[in-house]
Amino acid sequence: MINEEIPDQGIRLRPATVQDGAGMWEVARDTETLDLNSSYLYLLLARDFADTCVIAEHQGKVIGFASGYRRPRHPEVIFLWQVGIHPAWQGQGLGKRLVGAFLRQPGADRASMLETTITPSNEPSRGLFESIARELDTDCQVSTCFAADDFPDAGHSAENLFRIGPYRPAALNRLAP
Ligand SMILES: CC(C)(COP(=O)(O)OP(=O)(O)OC[C@H]1O[C@@H](n2cnc3c(N)ncnc32)[C@H](O)[C@@H]1OP(=O)(O)O)[C@@H](O)C(=O)NCCC(=O)NCCS
Hints:
- The protein is an alpha+beta fold.
- It has one domain (4-175): Gcn5-related N-acetyltransferase (GNAT) (Aminopeptidase), CATH 3.40.630.
- 25% of the residues lie in helices and 32% in strands.
- It contains four helices and eight strands.
- The protein has helices at residues 21-31, 39-48, 94-104, 123-135; strands at 4-6, 11-15, 53-58, 61-71, 74-85, 113-118, 140-146, 159-164.
- An eight-stranded mixed sheet has the order 1-2-3-4-5-6-8-7.
- Strand 3 and strand 4 form a beta hairpin.
- Helix 3 (94-104) packs across helix 4.
- The chain is globular.
- The two termini are 15 Å apart.
- Coenzyme A (COA) binds at residues 31, 33-34, 82-85, 90-96, 122-125, 127-128, 131.
- The site of coenzyme A has 21 residues, from strand 5, helix 3 and helix 4.
């Protein structure tokens, strides 16, 4: 089970519990970038997908989270659904450490490929995942996952699929705090 302290910052990386659902929803809202799903969904994620859901906590508050799941028909793939850092904590290396913890948690054990989707305009997210591919010394392949007109709600951007891997478990230590 992940339980890591980031030295000097008083930040703990740990698995989610149901009590974190509200804080995850608030962080997603405060990023003003992530798709804000219903608060009910974050509670379900924290309850039922806790093995693939990591929290960054500072002084008892959720300041970041990463959520995802193993693809049922492709268990070698760990899919990262959302990663969000509260704006006050962005740009300080926390996103990279959080994704590192996400990949080292029990729910990602024996996965060798990381997938996520990114809207083409999201430069910070692209920068984060390209940096992770470099740290893991592996490939980052980009293709279309969902086109804009796959979405029923007007104004939704396309989502590009980033496939990072294969990676070796030992390489994940490079993303440790
Ligand atoms: C994307 C996000 C999670 C990154 O977290 P972060 O803590 O700010 O990122 P880090 O400080 O760990 O930086 C990680 C890498 O991303 C790069 N990066 C960070 N911000 C960047 C930016 N604005 N433009 C380009 N690259 C950027 C950094 O250069 C770093 O790479 P390096 O270590 O090789 O230099 C954060 O900005 C965020 O929460 N954004 C809003 C929500 C979002 O868009 N989530 C992703 C979609 S699911």
